[in-house]
TrEMBL record:
GO terms for molecular function: ATP binding; ATP hydrolysis activity. Belongs to the ABC transporter superfamily. Residues 5-244 form the ABC transporter domain. PROSITE patterns: ABC_TRANSPORTER_1, ABC_TRANSPORTER_2. Keywords: ATP-binding, Nucleotide-binding, Transport. It comes from Psychrobacillus lasiicapitis. SMART domains: AAA. It holds the Pfam family ABC_tran. This is ABC transporter ATP-binding protein. InterPro entries: AAA+_ATPase (IPR003593), ABC_transporter-like_ATP-bd (IPR003439), ABC_transporter-like_CS (IPR017871), Metal_Ion_Import_ABC (IPR050153), P-loop_NTPase (IPR027417).
């Protein structure tokens, strides 16, 4: 399978408004992508199509070799792992469970265990804890974990079903710097499992070295897509973020700053009100 994801001339409309317009995008084997853009740029809509929650209004979509319109989308979703800060809405269920129980539930795509769990399942959960260097959490309850530990456990849960694609939707939201780096460190372990990453973020410094490609969105359209070194430029990022920015690279990670002249012009009126 050469193409993991393929969008051809894809548009998506909601309530008569075009949210995504003429999206042409391919994710190939051994590529790991970051998805960047402002709020409202279309990132979530793009992910919802990959997950099969939204069906394109026009165009063709293929995910993991399954062409939309000719495949069972609920079955396809079993091959896609998903981690987001929004999963915390299930915290009332999660806080009653141990770390191992939460990880095993990923096999059944459920929150809470309602099916029989085999010894092999428990062993796999322990193996994931070990592989992600989370052994010290063995036997702990979810309600005793820090925010960073919770996010890492949810990543382990997503890996329980051996997904071919893992979507990390702003997984570092709300984390302090140390916890963020712990989550980012796991990226190196994840890609060893033949799993393709889609990493969504507002912060380009989270694009670690295992991320190979970037797609930039603005107002539902692609500004640029391709190898990160070609896409993460001052000009393209300024276009995507609607403001003049500069990028610098330190230890193979990009860092963004807003140009000072823009700050003076944009926020001068704010100062007069204070």
């Amino acid at each position: 399978m050469d193409k993991v994801i393929a969008f051809k001339d894809v548009s998506w409309r909601r309530s008569g408004q075009e949210i995504l317009s003429q999206i042409n995008w391919e994710v190939k084997e051994n590529e790991h992508w970051a998805i960047l853009g402002l709020n409202g740029s279309g990132k979530t809509s793009l992910l919802n199509i990959v997950n099969g929650y939204n069906f394109p209004s026009t165009g063709n979509v293929s995910v993991l070799g399954h062409e939309f319109g000719r495949t069972n989308l609920p079955e396809l979703r079993k091959e896609i792992g998903y981690v987001s800060s929004s999963l915390e809405r299930f915290s009332q269920i999660l806080e009653r469970e141990t770390v191992e129980e939460i990880i095993v539930s990923g096999k059944f795509a459920s929150f809470g265990l309602y099916e029989k769990v085999s010894n092999e399942d428990w062993e796999k959960a322990d193996a994931l804890l070990s592989a992600l260097r989370l052994d010290y959490l063995n036997g702990k309850s979810y309600n005793s974990l820090s925010q960073g530990e919770r996010r890492r456990v949810l990543i382990a849960r997503a890996l329980m079903s051996d997904p071919k694609i893992l979507i990390l939707d702003e997984p570092c939201t709300g984390l302090d710097v140390f916890s963020r780096e712990e989550v980012l460190f796991l990226m190196n372990e994840i890609v060893q499992n033949d799993c393709h990453l889609l990493y969504v973020t507002h912060h380009i410094e989270e694009i670690v070295d295992v991320i190979s490609h970037v797609i930039l969105l603005r107002d539902g359209k692609i500004v640029a897509s391709g190898p990160k070194e070609e896409v993460l430029t001052d000009e393209l990022l300024s276009e995507a973020y609607k403001m003049p920015v500069k990028i610098r690279w330190e230890e193979d990670r990009p860092w963004l700053t807003i140009q000072k002249d823009f700050e003076k012009i944009k926020f001068s009126n704010v100062k007069t009100l204070l």
